[in-house]
């Protein structure tokens, strides 16, 4: 992995792990932590599981103890090594080792992701789903060898199946199960799943893709669009840079201001103070923020008292007041820019002004994002078609007419927007339809399928990298322990899937427990992931900011995508690539291997103790 068997971790990279709220169990936690000394990673995991099983108490302290140990175990699965220093427990991130090679880092990441998948397959029902997937493939007319033979001679007769239910969905899930990611699961928002096949072999998946609503607040993406005035590094950039490159910054500012005014005029007035000034302003924003805080407090009380209808109304009023406040702040910031002799220079120099502008830009993005942007959350080849570069074909699907039609060009307002805004908002600011597709590599070295990939006349471009947050690596039993602790410590569950409460109840529940226990944020996986965009128009950001018109995008046909892919990526080496694919385990082999890895009765067989000198002989470089 490195230049020696010893991984050297800089001291300043160590993370303290000292749970609070353990009370009389604090000495026992320290005893468990001490017992981990000298164990390889796999045995550390088993020791922590044993320590959890030894406690079946039902007090808040017992629940805090169990949650803390399981969180520690998930840190170990994510590549952290626990060390006992004096009376402290610290976590050493193995991926931060100064002598870890890039190949070693890539292999370690792949291992950690596979462990996250194995953990997830322990969730209730997942093993049965995996068994059903294998049965579906075995009973079908699955012919990987025949499909490989045809691909060595020419492009596939590509068919893009919208796999939402039935046998197509089962085949989609079968492919998805083979990846080092958590299993397929429902999520809030829109979803379009695509199964790639050759019409001559309809039961033999070539690859899969899935498209979902984008998530907010990814800085390098928002900066690329110009929907934040910050750069990817946090300084001035994005919207500021776009103003600086245009011929008339004042005209562009007025166009964006006009968009903010239209949105503010369309906010549903129910529950808001009368006669909102469409010029916005900080004073109006402050008053609206006070209203929002008042509504939020009343909403929490209504939920605690199980007053469902009152809670729903109060939450809607909260969201309307918050939206109107941020639009008012955005208008105040743009007004400051319009009054400046050099608005670009003002924005670069003034952080307060950038923050005002960002409040408005954020609302523009939140209004549009469900219509205009797609997140390619799943993309890749099905076994054994990786060697024939079917991942490139899956990446090309993003700009297809099948995907854009399935996503929809004139969709209705989402649940939150329909509550915050009046229906006529769609007349004031029409939906331009799909403008851009985003995706990210799973981890560094796992994104080559997007490099130089194209979709008809459009090309994927790398727009930066993100070091993000997520909960995919948090195991099912950890989530159960966290939920139990949260409920016991509060007396009722604060975290729900209620409209307007924010994305991912699971994500928020983890954060609440980590905060209460005083533990480092397990949700931050600290893996730099390359971020890519497939623009469907020349400049998606300019359309959203009101600077250009756009929309009416037509996607590439299946025939065009297949021919372009085969000519570019397969033709020159078709025989060699097909030969490698024939020697690669197929979908049946991969699914059967996963079931063997889980073992009988959901017992993992593949996690037996091994000699891991790099982990046992950890050195701390001062």
Number of helices: 25
Query: Could you give the distance between the termini?
Result: 21 Å
In which range does the helix fraction lie?
Answer: 40-55%
Ranges where pLDDT stays below 50 over 5 or more residues in a row are 497-503, 602-622
- Percent of residues in β-strands: 5-15%
Please, what is the average pLDDT? 85
Structural category is alpha+beta
Overall body shape: globular
Order of strands across the biggest sheet? Answer: 5-6-7-8-9-13-12
Instruction: Specify Rg, calculated over alpha carbons.
Output: 26 Å
Number of strands: 14
Largest sheet report:
7 strands, mixed
Features:
622 residues, alpha+beta, seven-stranded mixed sheet, three-stranded antiparallel sheet, 49% helix
Q: How are the secondary structure elements laid out?
A:
Blueprint: E1 8-10, E2 15-16, H1 26-35, H2 41-53, H3 60-77, E3 80-85, E4 88-93, H4 102-120, H5 126-139, H6 144-151, E5 158-162, H7 166-176, E6 191-198, E7 201-213, H8 219-225, H9 239-245, H10 249-265, H11 282-304, H12 308-339, H13 343-349, H14 351-372, E8 373-381, H15 390-396, H16 401-407, H17 415-420, H18 425-428, E9 436-440, E10 454-455, E11 458-459, E12 461-469, H19 476-490, H20 505-517, E13 524-535, H21 540-544, H22 558-570, H23 574-582, H24 587-598, H25 613-616, E14 619-621
Parallel strand pairs: 1-14, 8-9
Antiparallel strand pairs: 2-4, 3-4, 5-6, 6-7, 7-8, 9-13, 10-11, 12-13
Molecular structure report:
- The protein contains 25 helices and 14 strands.
- The longest helix has 32 residues, at 308-339.
- A hairpin with a 2-residue loop joins β3 and β4 (88-93).
- It has a 7-stranded mixed β-sheet, with helices on both faces.
- The model is unreliable at 497-503 and 602-622 (pLDDT under 50).
- The chain is α+β, with helices and mostly antiparallel strands and 622 residues long.
């Amino acid at each position: 992995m490195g230049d020696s068997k010893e991984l050297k971790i800089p001291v300043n990279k160590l993370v303290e792990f000292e749970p609070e709220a353990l009370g009389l169990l604090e000495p026992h936690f320290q005893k468990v932590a001490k017992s981990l000394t000298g164990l390889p990673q796999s045995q550390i995991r088993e020791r922590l599981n044993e320590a959890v099983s030894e406690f079946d108490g039902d007090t808040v302290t017992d629940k805090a103890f169990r949650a803390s140990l399981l969180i520690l175990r998930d840190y170990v699965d994510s590549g952290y090594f626990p060390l006992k220093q004096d009376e402290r427990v610290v976590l050493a991130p193995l991926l931060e080792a100064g002598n870890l090679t890039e190949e070693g880092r890539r292999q370690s990441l792949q291992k950690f992701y596979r462990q996250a998948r194995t953990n997830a397959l322990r969730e209730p029902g997942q093993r049965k789903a995996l068994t059903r997937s294998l049965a579906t493939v075995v009973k079908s007319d699955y012919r990987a060898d025949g499909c490989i033979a045809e691909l060595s001679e020419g492009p596939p007769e590509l068919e893009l199946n919208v796999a939402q239910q039935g046998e197509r969905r089962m085949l989609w899930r079968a492919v998805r199960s083979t990846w080092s990611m958590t299993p397929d699961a429902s999520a809030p928002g829109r979803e379009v799943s695509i199964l790639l096949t050759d019409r001559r072999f309809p039961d033999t998946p070539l690859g899969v893709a899935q498209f979902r609503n984008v998530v907010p607040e990814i800085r390098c993406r928002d900066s690329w669009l110009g929907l934040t005035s910050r750069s990817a590094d946090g300084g001035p950039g994005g919207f500021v840079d776009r103003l600086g490159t245009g011929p008339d910054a004042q005209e562009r500012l007025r166009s964006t201001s006009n968009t903010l005014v239209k949105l503010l005029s369309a906010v549903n007035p129910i529950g808001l103070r009368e006669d909102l000034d469409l010029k916005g302003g900080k004073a109006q924003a402050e008053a609206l923020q006070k209203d929002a805080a008042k509504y939020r407090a009343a909403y929490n009380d209504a939920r605690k008292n199980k007053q469902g209808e009152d809670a729903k109304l109060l939450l809607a009023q909260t969201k309307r007041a918050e939206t109107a406040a941020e639009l008012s702040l955005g208008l105040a910031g743009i007004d400051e820019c319009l009054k400046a002799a050099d608005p670009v220079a003002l924005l670069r120099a003034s952080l307060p002004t950038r923050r005002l502008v960002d409040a408005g830009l954020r609302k523009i993005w939140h209004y549009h994002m469900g219509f205009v942007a797609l997140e390619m959350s799943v993309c890749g080849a099905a076994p054994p078609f990786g060697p024939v570069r079917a991942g490139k074909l899956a990446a090309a699907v993003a700009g297809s007419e099948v995907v854009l039609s399935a996503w929809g060009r004139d969709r209705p307002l989402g649940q939150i927007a329909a509550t915050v805004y009046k229906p006529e908002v769609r007349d004031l600011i029409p939906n331009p339809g799909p403008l851009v597709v985003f995706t990210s590599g799973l981890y560094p070295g796992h994104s080559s399928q997007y490099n130089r990939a194209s979709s008809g006349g459009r090309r994927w471009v790398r727009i930066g990298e993100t070091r993000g947050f997520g909960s995919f690596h948090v195991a099912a039993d950890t989530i159960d322990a966290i939920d139990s602790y949260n409920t016991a410590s509060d007396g009722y569950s604060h975290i729900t899937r209620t409209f307007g409460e924010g994305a991912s109840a699971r994500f928020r529940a983890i954060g609440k427990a980590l905060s209460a226990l005083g533990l480092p944020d397990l949700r931050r996986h600290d893996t730099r992931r390359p971020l890519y965009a497939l623009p469907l128009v020349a400049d998606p950001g300019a359309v959203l900011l009101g600077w250009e018109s756009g929309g009416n995008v037509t996607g590439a046909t299946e025939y065009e995508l297949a021919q372009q892919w085969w000519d570019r990526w397969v033709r020159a080496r078709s025989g060699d690539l097909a030969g490698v694919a024939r020697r690669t385990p197929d979908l049946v082999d991969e699914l059967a291997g996963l079931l063997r890895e889980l073992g009988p009765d959901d017992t993992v067989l593949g996690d037996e103790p091994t000699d891991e000198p790099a982990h046992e002989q950890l050195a701390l470089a001062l």
